[in-house]
Design goal:
This protein has helices spanning 5-21, 38-51, 85-98, 111-127, and strands at 2-3, 27-32, 65-71, 74-80. By secondary structure, the chain is an alpha+beta fold. The chain has one domain (2-106): Signal recognition particle alu RNA binding heterodimer, srp9/1 (2-Layer Sandwich). A 4-stranded mixed beta sheet has the order 1-4-3-2, covered by helices on one side. Helix 1 (5-21) packs parallel to helix 3 (85-98). It is extended. Component of the signal recognition particle (SRP) complex, a ribonucleoprotein complex that mediates the cotranslational targeting of secretory and membrane proteins to the endoplasmic reticulum (ER). Residues 105-128 have a biased composition (Basic residues). Residues 101-128 are annotated as: Disordered.
């Protein structure tokens, strides 16, 4: 569901609070929004490749960002305009910092440690 920026942030905090009690995951995605249908984009790319005119174009346009959050079947998204981006990103980063404690620590692999020990043993065996 497409929400305005403030409603998106409040829904995002609710999703993070619900995740603490559940075992679900939240997936956040961000991408530039170009307002062109996919068929037009593909046609333009094909035309550029066909003509082999792949010059770097100075794109001075400011595009809005689409930010999506999914948690199971709950899906929310918002479009952030360049003029509102500073305000939105400060609030967005604060929410992420507050709820960072709910993240699971990454499990370290012990395989690397055993590989190092094996290399040391082989090196000692070749020296002796």
């Amino acid at each position: 569901m497409l929400l305005d920026n403030d409603a998106f942030l409040t829904q995002l905090t609710r999703l993070f609070e619900n995740v603490k009690s559940n075992t679900k995951k939240i997936q956040l995605t961000m991408k530039r929004h170009t307002w062109q249908p996919k068929k037009l984009r593909n046609a333009e790319v094909a035309k550029e490749l066909k003509n082999k005119e792949l010059e770097k174009k100075g794109d001075d346009k400011e595009y809005p960002m689409v930010i999506r959050a999914t948690c199971g079947k709950n899906k929310i998204q918002t479009v952030v305009n360049p003029s509102d981006s500073d305000k939105f990103y400060t609030a967005y980063s604060n929410i992420l910092k507050v709820h960072m404690d709910s993240m699971k620590k990454r499990e370290k692999k012990e395989k690397k440690k055993t590989d190092r020990k094996k290399k040391i043993r082989k090196a000692k065996a070749t020296i002796a």
